[in-house]
Structures are given as structure tokens and as C-alpha cells.
Write a structure and sequence with these properties.
Elements (H helix, E strand, L loop, with lengths): L3 E5 L9 H8 L4 E5 L3 H6 L7 H8 L15 H9 L18
Parallel strand pairs: 1-2
Amino acid sequence: MAPTFAFIDPFGFKGVPIQLVGRLLAFDRCEVFFYFMYNRVNQFLAAERITSHLNGLFGTRDYIQACDLDPGARVSGSSTTCTSGSYVGPASCNTAKKHK
């Protein structure tokens, strides 16, 4: 693949599973900027109707632990949940780097 900078801005909670982002980042000269809609995800975190979409988005069910936290306290927990993936950087997304 040619050197690539991909900007991913999902519409809603579905359609961009973390495995897709991981496939892009598997190439040495590929970077991804993922627009993460924290406020919308935080608002609907416990909504069972979107659980399958959030499972795909995060690639794990670990985010469910945040449901027990106060919504304001979820910010610090989101970084931990997001960085548990193989290719996901901090939720603040200052830089995107592969984590091994």
C-alpha cells in the first residue's frame, strides 16, 4: 500500500469495527486519525440496542465496566478501555501509534 493517512469519521456507532482500523495500521506507512464521538458513545453506553455496534467499535466488551461509573468519571476510564486494543492509541488521539 502507498503511504496513507486515513481520516475515519464514522456516522453513528456502526460500520467501522476496530478490526478494519487494525488492518489499515498493519501497513508500515499507514496512519489513521479516528474521530471518536466520545459524548455520543458516553450518552448511549448502556443502551442494549447498540451493544453489538459498540462491541465492534471497541473490539472488546471491556467498555461495559464504565457503565457503573459516573458519566463524568468515564473520561479517565475511556483511555484505559481504548488502549487495550492492539492498534488503538489514547482516546485523546494526539498521535496514533501502534501498541504491541
